[in-house]
Write a structure and sequence with these properties.
The chain is α+β, with helices and mostly antiparallel strands and 294 residues long. The chain has 2 domains: 163 residues, 2-Layer Sandwich (Ribosomal Protein S5, domain 2); 106 residues, 2-Layer Sandwich (Alpha-Beta Plaits). It is built from 8 helices and 13 strands. A hairpin with a 5-residue loop joins strand 2 and strand 3.
């Protein structure tokens, strides 16, 4: 199949823990977290790119309520073309996005879409940029974009752009999708957000460590998040919110156990089962520990 005709996956991520360990002078929060992808065979967004004879970056199916100029896939394509050094030699592109990941869900859908756009067009346009260069472009689009380009389960620090790869135990996740979208800025500017959790060394991280410092604020502002977490915890397994919410998840050793729990889900809740994935399906060669400076 011609690469211009293929579907390009944009997988979800979950945060196995997320601590706020400080704040920079410019207001950005310093984080520690472990990112893990969810298998795109279970759930993902997907994108397709069509070459154009002009230099326009166009959307085949704009997201409702999202202007084209703020759409992360458009911004990613424009940023890549500008950074390539020879934007005038490239044709435009029409981007078609099949959206399955929830907006404002803490699963990194928009960031993943942007990263897949960078990875796909870097190949399709023949830009030849390496992982570090693509991560630098991605960081200007959003703090979670670089991890999807990095492409491995990883312990992230800083504002989420300094990576040390880790190997979580095999697991399958029951992910619940509360019927709310949580704006990340609302969580980070809350006065009651904890910002002083002690930092750890990446080498000291273990499966099951920590919690999500953003969870308490999200639950206060959005009671549906609390209700979904409460139900997951009736299963007798640890449950956490991913990112800044609203999605919540519980970990199980295999798909059968996760699907058994999903079968008990109340009729007024929505969820899905997905396996953990430690290498992004579009991952470029790994450089091990890495850091991207903004």
């Amino acid at each position: 199949m011609n690469d211009w005709q293929r579907d390009w996956p944009a997988p979800a991520k979950i945060n196995l823990f997320l601590h706020v360990v400080g704040r920079r002078a410019d207001g950005y929060h310093l984080l520690q977290t472990v990112f893990r992808f969810l298998d795109p065979a279970d759930i993902c967004d997907s994108l397709r790119f069509a070459p154009r004879d002009d230099d326009a970056i166009a959307l085949a199916n704009p997201l409702p309520g999202v202007p084209a100029e703020t759409d992360l896939t458009v911004r990613a394509a424009l940023a890549l073309r500008a950074a390539s050094g020879a934007p005038g030699t490239m044709r435009g592109v029409t981007i078609a996005l099949e959206k399955r990941l929830p907006l404002g869900g803490g699963l990194g859908g928009g960031s993943s879409d942007a990263a897949t756009t960078l990875l796909a067009l870097n190949h399709l346009w023949g830009c030849g940029l390496d992982t570090t260069e693509l991560q630098r472009i991605g960081l200007a689009l959003g703090a979670d974009v670089p991890v999807f380009i990095h492409g491995r389960s990883t312990f992230a620090e800083g504002v989420g752009e300094q990576f040390t790869d880790v190997a979580p135990a095999p697991a399958c996740y029951l992910v619940l999708v509360p019927p709310v979208g949580v704006p990340t800025p609302d969580i980070f500017r809350a006065p009651d957000l904890r910002r002083d959790t002690p930092a750890i060394r990446p080498a000291d991280w273990r499966d099951g460590f920590g919690g999500n410092d953003l969870e308490a604020v999200a639950c206060r502002l959005y009671p549906e998040v609390q209700r979904h977490l409460d139900w997951l915890r009736t299963l007798g397994v640890p449950a956490r919110m991913s990112g800044s919410g609203a999605c919540c998840f519980a970990e199980f050793p295999d798909a059968a156990a996760a699907r058994s729990a999903l079968a008990r889900l109340p009729a007024d809740m929505t969820g899905f089962v997905a396996r953990g994935l430690d290498v992004h399906p579009l991952a470029m060669p790994s450089l091990g520990e890495s850091s991207v400076e903004g």
